[in-house]
Write a structure and sequence with these properties.
By secondary structure, the chain is an alpha+beta fold. It has helices at about 20-25, 30, 55-70, 80-85, 95-110, 135-140, 145-150, 160-165, 180-190, 195-210, 220-225, 245-265, 265-280, 290-295, 300-310, 320-325, 340-345, 350-360, 415-435, and strands at about 5-10, 15-20, 225-230, 235-240, 330-335, 365-370, 370-375, 380, 385-390, 395-400, 405-410. Strands 3-4-8-9 form a 4-stranded mixed sheet. It has a 3-stranded antiparallel sheet with strand order 5-11-6. It has a two-stranded antiparallel ribbon with strand order 1-2. Strand 8 and strand 9 form a beta hairpin.
Length: about 425
């Protein structure tokens, strides 16, 4: 029986297509759960349009990764030697191509199924046994339901290959079934590399839903200039044509500005802190459960109900954080370490935090490290010889500023700001005296 083609209309990519088998995977519990996991956590409290969810992102990554795969394996973009090394040419090539394509699509669709409620917002509450969403993702894929579904796949695909491609170096096991190391790496780069579908989709999607223009870049030019080349050892690797370097620079700039203007915005960050502290009182033991079935039952809606109940209960230990989120009565920014103090007053933030914590309880501290956006991918010149992008581009790496902030209730902001400034001045005088 011929498999039907189904379609979903997407605001970023238009129609996203999938067949009967993929529909079954999409309808599975781990994937459907993503309908209730916000892509940007509490950002909707700052940008009202940012209510989009991981489900639509997963579909978008699957669609975009497939576009990249279909383009890079065209004969005019993939020489015979690389095609041989990838298994895309020869007697069994139609089957191999279809297996790689299926593996890539499934890995892209499932790469985020382990995300916690409100996505990265609550990542700090993971236990040592499940240290992050990648651990949940990997263990969910290995749980058995996916293998049962793959038994009905039109072409043989192994769970181990899906895990390897979905998580790349983040997978705890290096075992693969049908893919070689370099085949798995190339396919994984199409999803999670510097110019992978994951990064391209979330920047465009987040920009669309927040209304921020910063995350936009020339995706058509970028996708149509991606290709494969050889690394110095002669192995196949993901690359970009010289003519696409400027489009890649556009992506780097887009990611940098989205981090500075959206992801690291101080109001978004303080809501993340309020939510994290609430979850620490609500979750048993203050961490997310290890049991995967229990984990699957936790979604944004459950946390919202828990916050409403806590806010109405004067004795609930998480009441204040829950109330502040629901009533949008968040702590205000009282002090932020200035960029010029980062170099001259090393350790200032830790000193301020220690001094304030001796006398005050209830302040919130945010210590955001530098976020680097790099382009570690070769470009292929007009002579088909690869080169380093950093030798061709002036924007191959951008690093955000660290953000070290102190938040306080609105009525305490002026007092806390004054105390922080006095602490900084005292430390500056002491170090100048030592100099």
């Amino acid at each position: 029986m011929t498999s039907r083609v189904h379609e979903i209309r997407d605001p970023i990519h238009g129609f996203i297509l999938f067949d009967d088998f993929e529909r079954e995977v999409i309808n599975s519990r781990p994937v459907q759960r993503l309908r209730d996991i916000k892509q940007l956590g509490t950002t909707y409290l700052l940008y009202p349009g940012a209510t989009h969810v991981r489900f639509e992102h997963a579909l978008g990554v699957m669609h975009l990764a497939t576009r990249v795969f279909d383009l890079v394996r065209r004969e005019d973009r993939c020489d015979g030697q690389i095609a041989d090394e990838m298994g895309w040419r020869g007697h069994d090539s139609p089957t191999t191509v279809e297996r790689h394509r299926r593996t890539l699509r499934l890995a892209a669709l499932l790469h985020d199924i382990g995300h916690l409620p409100f996505s990265h917002t609550s990542e700090r509450l993971c236990s040592e046994r499940r240290p992050g969403h990648e651990s949940y993702t990997e263990n969910l894929m290995r749980q058995g339901w996916l293998a049962d579904l793959l038994a009905h796949c039109p072409v043989h695909v192994d769970v181990r290959d899906v895990v390897s491609v979905a998580l790349g170096g983040a997978a705890s096991h290096a075992d693969r079934a049908d893919l070689s190391h370099y085949q798995a790496q190339v396919l994984s780069d199409m999803i999670a590399g510097d110019l992978g579908a994951d990064r391209m989709d979330y920047l465009l999607r987040d920009a669309h839903h927040t209304g921020a223009a910063y995350g936009r870049f020339d995706i058509e030019r970028l996708v149509h200039t991606l290709r494969l080349t050889h690394d110095p050892a002669g192995n196949p690797m993901y690359a970009i044509e010289e003519g696409g370097v400027h489009a890649a620079e556009g992506l780097i700039l887009a990611r940098y500005f989205m981090f500075e203007q959206v992801y690291h915005h101080h109001v978004r960050r303080v809501y993340d802190l309020h939510l994290g502290d609430f979850l620490g009182t609500w979750l048993p033991g203050g961490v997310f459960p290890v049991d995967l079935d229990v984990f699957l039952s936790l979604q944004d809606s459950h946390v919202n109900v828990a916050m409403a109940e806590a806010a109405a209960n004067g004795r609930n230990p998480g009441r204040d954080h829950a109330r502040r989120i629901l009533e949008r009565d968040h702590f205000r920014l009282a002090y932020e370490v200035r960029p010029e103090d980062e170099g001259t007053l090393v350790g200032l933030f830790d000193y301020i935090r220690n001094e304030l914590c001796r006398c005050d309880e209830g302040l919130l501290f945010d210590d955001l490290k530098r976020e680097e956006t790099t382009l570690r991918i070769p470009y292929v010149g007009r002579d088909d010889k690869p080169g380093k992008v950093e030798e061709r581009s002036g924007v191959s790496s951008l690093i955000t500023f660290p953000h070290r902030r102190v938040f306080a209730p609105q009525e305490q902001v002026e007092e806390i700001r004054s105390r922080c400034e006095n602490i900084a001045a005292t430390l500056r005088e002491a170090r100048n005296g030592q100099g």
